[in-house]
Design a protein that fits this description.
By secondary structure, this protein is mainly α. It is built from 3 helices and 2 strands, in the order αααββ. β1 and β2 (about 85-90) form a beta hairpin.
C-alpha cells in the first residue's frame, strides 16, 4: 500500500505532530514499509492456529484462601517509623 503526503499530513494533524518536508518524506516511506509488511503478514494461512492470550507458557499457581487470626490495628502500627496514636504518619506530599 502506498502512502501519499496528504495522508501523512492528515495523520500528523490528528497526532498533533509537526515536521518539515524532509521528515515528512521519511515518515511516508516508513509508513509504506510498515503497511507492506502487514499486507505480507495477511497472506499467511492461520486457519488452524489458536489465538494467543499470553506469550508466556507460565501457569499461575493459586492457593486456597484460609481464614486466620485477625491482627489488630495496633499490631500494624508497631513497625511504623512514625505514628500518631491510631494513625500512620507520612511525609507531606501536597502543599
Amino acid at each position: 500500500m502506498k502512502i501519499d503526503r496528504e495522508t501523512v499530513r492528515k495523520i500528523a494533524h490528528l497526532a498533533r505532530l509537526e515536521f518539515d518536508e524532509q521528515a515528512e518524506d521519511q515518515i511516508k516511506d516508513s509508513m509504506t514499509e510498515i503497511l507492506d509488511w502487514v499486507e505480507q503478514l495477511n497472506e499467511v494461512d492461520t486457519t488452524d492456529i489458536q489465538p494467543l492470550t499470553n506469550m508466556s507458557l507460565e501457569v499461575n499457581k493459586f492457593r486456597e484462601d484460609h481464614i486466620g487470626e485477625h491482627l489488630s490495628h495496633q499490631s500494624g502500627l508497631l513497625n511504623a517509623p512514625k505514628k500518631d496514636q491510631h494513625y500512620f504518619r507520612v511525609p507531606k506530599v501536597l502543599d
